[in-house]
Design a protein that fits this description.
single chain; 390 residues; alpha/beta; 4 domains; six-stranded mixed β-sheet; five-stranded mixed β-sheet; 23% helix; binds prephenic acid; ACT_dom; lyase; chloroplast; phenylalanine biosynthesis
Length: 390
Amino acid sequence: MALKGVLIWGNYVPQLSCKTAGVHLTSKPSSGDSLNLKREKWESLSSQRAIIPVEDENPSLEFKQILVPIEEVDSKKFYRDLSFLPKPLSIADFSASNSDGTNVRVAYQGVPGAYSEAAALKAYPECEAVPCDQFEAAFKAVELWLVDKAVLPIENTLGGSIHRNYDLLLRHRLHIVGEVQLAVNHCLLGLPGVKKDDLKRVLSHPQALAQCEMYLTKLGVVRESADDTAGAAQFVALNRLKDTGAVASARAADIYGLKVLAEKIQDDFENITRFLILAREPIIPKADRPFKTSIVFTLEEGPGVLFKALAVFAMRDINLTKIESRPQRKRPLRVVDDLNAGCAKYFDYLFYIDFEASMAEERAQNALIHLQEFATFMRVLGCYPMDMIL
Ligand SMILES: O=C(O)C(=O)C[C@]1(C(=O)O)C=C[C@@H](O)C=C1
């Protein structure tokens, strides 16, 4: 919304009642202040002991200000300078203060120049992106309060699911609070002066190598895995490897001083990776914009149980956007003893589902209540706004 601020000055305590929300700011504006109020106007108004309405970008926004002169409530008694007292911690101290990510620390896997870093910056443009060597380190960094959030890849249009992160989602107790869709354009990078034909080997993250399968096959090079795409570029640069290239972003080329030998080398022009934003606390589900909910569950063995589980969404017109199954590591096999037919061993699975509805909607709540009739275990991993911008 466009309300820029409410300035409090002089001997009045303005009490704001606003249709939507108020932003409080208690300092005097300096010239060039981002607030739209001119200093002279401020001076003259405040000397008249008047309240100062903030010029608002949205003229339709109405707010009413009621003045209470401090004298009436005994200013001496209440307005001693108490700034030396410690400020009590509030909920705001534990969470990101701004939606652009100012003051937010976001963990990602990889080194600067990785696509995961780009995803973190897409979600929180002003954040401090904190590199982690492994996915699990990013989960732990959030749990241990070293960072506020983690941004981790979960699926890609060419390579499919990033299974490791599905498994980690269940093992850790973090909540999905958002998603980021990022267009991934891979480049072939090499040392300055090196040509494509000089390359015998190419390093990258296994997902990136898989996404460039056709190009790399044509190039006829040996492929080797690295922890992340930018890490591969860094390795080539640090070791001055003339016969080795890296599949990584153009930004990684800039950071590590490599040349872009070929652009957009992924198998499909449109290559999108979806990332999840994880936090210690869930967000409050709303229904004012498109939301997604992610769940994980297990089912009883038996004919048609998965069909029934999926039907709870279909009958409420809830669209599923993703279904993934993973083996249950702790109990991979279910042994069923049948006296007549002998002993049967079934693979046991966890089902992960993303559906397009908010937990604030009754139909989503009812679907999950219904699902619990068949599920032996169920957990809501998060309910979060859909990323609509690519
Ligand atoms: O290696 C990176 O740059 C990453 O951010 C990881 C990752 C992935 O794990 O999928 C992210 C996006 C691309 O799909 C390729 C690699």
